[in-house]
Each structure stands twice: as structure tokens, then as C-alpha cells.
Amino acid sequence: MGKAGNIFVVSLSVADLVVAIYPYPLILSAIFHNGWTMGNVHCQISGFLMGLSVIGSIFNITAIAINRYCYICHSLRYEKLFNLKNTCCYLCLTWILTVVAIVPNFFVGSLQYDPRIYSCTFAQTVSTSYTITVVVVHFIVPLSIVTFCYLRIWILVIQVKHRVRQDCKQKLRAADIRNFLTMFVVFVLFAVCWGPLNFIGLAVSINPSKVQPHIPEWLFVLSYFMAYFNSCLNGVIYGLLNQNFRKEYKRILLTLRTPRLLFVDVSKGGTEGMKSKPSPAVTNNNNQAEIHL
């Protein structure tokens, strides 16, 4: 994906880690004590960070989709659109929009402890209009943009496969397609994990009196824990679909078993770096095969 594109992947991993650092330990504490014992301040902070992680994830997934769309479908303009400076600006904008999207919760009072899921989170029934806005702006609109971007990429890949656009001078590497497939799987799993919870919230908001009594508690709890589970899936996806990640995971595991290997790797890397010239970054499985359009 190149250095600029990888910035959004790192940002997505940060969004996933946010919930592991603070909200999840508090949820475990609430489960062990069968109730919230940390006070309202920690409840508000936990709910804020949970929302920051969720919305940050979907906004970063949207940014990745746009980045991949420009890289594959508009490659001639990609370097200008996504140079390092512009990419950093896009990243800052992504997180600014994320924070702006979370702040209204404090004015609406929608960050509350829910005993059914042992966590402080967004209460869907506090404000009907606000819940509808959250689902539309923070879920449906981003997913629509991502769907459009990946649909256009799929069309281009199909055209390449069937040699529909032989007159085009663009080149598409096999590694680019693999990177696209990895992020597409990330998007699909996010939609699957978070879709039920968002659609339940939307249905309840549209007609609370009729819909809410008919939603079983187990379905609500299952939808929440499906959403929580999504935060740990991305690292697994990278490990399954990306050879570079698999190699690095193996190195980390070996290092944990034998710490001295860490110093050997660092020493070896430094020696090789002095003896050899730097080479261009290679993505995914280091496969440089190209598909000509």
C-alpha cells in the first residue's frame, strides 16, 4: 500500500486498541462485581473511549477504502492526492470528525451504564432523533461510501480479468489486489459485527413503543458482544491474509520464548542496513507480478 496508505491501517489499529486499554478492563470489573463500581466519571470516560474506538474504526475504514479506490482506479493522480503531507492532513481530519461525532453524547446524556452488557455505552432510547442521526451519519453513510469504493475496484478487477480494458496504460499488481482483499474482509467483518446493533437501534428509534418490547434481551446482548468482538478481529485477518504479518507474528512469538533473539535480530538488522543500500518498500507477499490493463 505504500507508506502513505499504511498510515490509515496503523490508525485503524490504534482505534481497535483504545477499547482494550481502558473500557474493556472496566467491563471485566463490572462483570466480576455484577455491577458498575467505578463511579460516574469513569463511566463517562469509558463510554467516550468506546465511542471513539467505534466511530474511529468506521471512519478509518472509510479512509482506507477511499485510499484504495484512488490507488487502484485513479493511479495517475494517486501520488498527488495522497502524498505524505496530504495523508497526514486526511488522518487528522478523520480523528477530528470522530471527536466531533462523540461530543454531542455529553449534551444529550446518552452515555449510561447498561446492566445487560455490564458497560457504559451509548443508550439508544435517550433521544430518538439523535439515535437515528448516529446510525445514519456514523454507520450507513460511511458504509455506503466504502461499498461504492470497493464496488468500483471490483469492477476494475473484473475488467482486468476479462481483458475488457486493454487500451488502458495503468498497471495493477497482484500484491495490490491482495491488499485490497485484506481491507475488504476487514470492512465486511466490521459491517457484520456492528450491523445488528445499529439496525436494532434504528428500529427502536423509529417506533420505540412497538419495537422495543419485541426485541429479546439475548438478541440485544448478542449484538453488543458481536460488536465488541470486532476489535480483536483485524489483527487475526492481517495474520491470515498477509505473509509479512505472519512472519512478524512468528518472530514476536519466538522472541517471547527466547528474548535473546530480539537482540540478535536488532544487531543483524543494523549490520545488514550498513552493508546494503535501502530498497523500495514491498507490500504484502513481496510479489511483484503485474496485471496489465
From TrEMBL:
<keyword id="KW-0297">G-protein coupled receptor</keyword>
<dbReference type="GO" id="GO:0005886">
    <property type="term" value="C:plasma membrane"/>
</dbReference>
<dbReference type="GO" id="GO:0045820">
    <property type="term" value="P:negative regulation of glycolytic process"/>
</dbReference>
<keyword id="KW-0675">Receptor</keyword>
<feature type="transmembrane region" description="Helical">
    <location>
        <begin position="179"/>
        <end position="206"/>
    </location>
</feature>
<feature type="transmembrane region" description="Helical">
    <location>
        <begin position="128"/>
        <end position="158"/>
    </location>
</feature>
<keyword id="KW-1133">Transmembrane helix</keyword>
<feature type="transmembrane region" description="Helical">
    <location>
        <begin position="87"/>
        <end position="108"/>
    </location>
</feature>
<keyword id="KW-0807">Transducer</keyword>
<feature type="transmembrane region" description="Helical">
    <location>
        <begin position="218"/>
        <end position="241"/>
    </location>
</feature>
<keyword id="KW-1015">Disulfide bond</keyword>
<dbReference type="InterPro" id="IPR002279">
    <property type="entry name" value="Mel_rcpt_1C"/>
</dbReference>
<dbReference type="Pfam" id="PF00001">
    <property type="entry name" value="7tm_1"/>
</dbReference>
<keyword id="KW-1003">Cell membrane</keyword>
<keyword id="KW-0472">Membrane</keyword>
<dbReference type="InterPro" id="IPR017452">
    <property type="entry name" value="GPCR_Rhodpsn_7TM"/>
</dbReference>
<dbReference type="GO" id="GO:1904408">
    <property type="term" value="F:melatonin binding"/>
</dbReference>
<dbReference type="GO" id="GO:0008502">
    <property type="term" value="F:melatonin receptor activity"/>
</dbReference>
<comment type="similarity">
    <text>Belongs to the G-protein coupled receptor 1 family.</text>
</comment>
<comment type="function">
    <text>High affinity receptor for melatonin. The activity of this receptor is mediated by pertussis toxin sensitive G proteins that inhibits adenylate cyclase activity.</text>
</comment>
<protein>
    <recommendedName>
        <fullName>G-protein coupled receptors family 1 profile domain-containing protein</fullName>
    </recommendedName>
</protein>
<dbReference type="InterPro" id="IPR000025">
    <property type="entry name" value="Melatonin_rcpt"/>
</dbReference>
<feature type="domain" description="G-protein coupled receptors family 1 profile">
    <location>
        <begin position="1"/>
        <end position="238"/>
    </location>
</feature>
<feature type="transmembrane region" description="Helical">
    <location>
        <begin position="45"/>
        <end position="66"/>
    </location>
</feature>
<feature type="transmembrane region" description="Helical">
    <location>
        <begin position="7"/>
        <end position="25"/>
    </location>
</feature>
<keyword id="KW-0812">Transmembrane</keyword>
<dbReference type="GO" id="GO:0046325">
    <property type="term" value="P:negative regulation of D-glucose import"/>
</dbReference>
<feature type="compositionally biased region" description="Polar residues">
    <location>
        <begin position="281"/>
        <end position="293"/>
    </location>
</feature>
<dbReference type="InterPro" id="IPR000276">
    <property type="entry name" value="GPCR_Rhodpsn"/>
</dbReference>
<feature type="region of interest" description="Disordered">
    <location>
        <begin position="271"/>
        <end position="293"/>
    </location>
</feature>
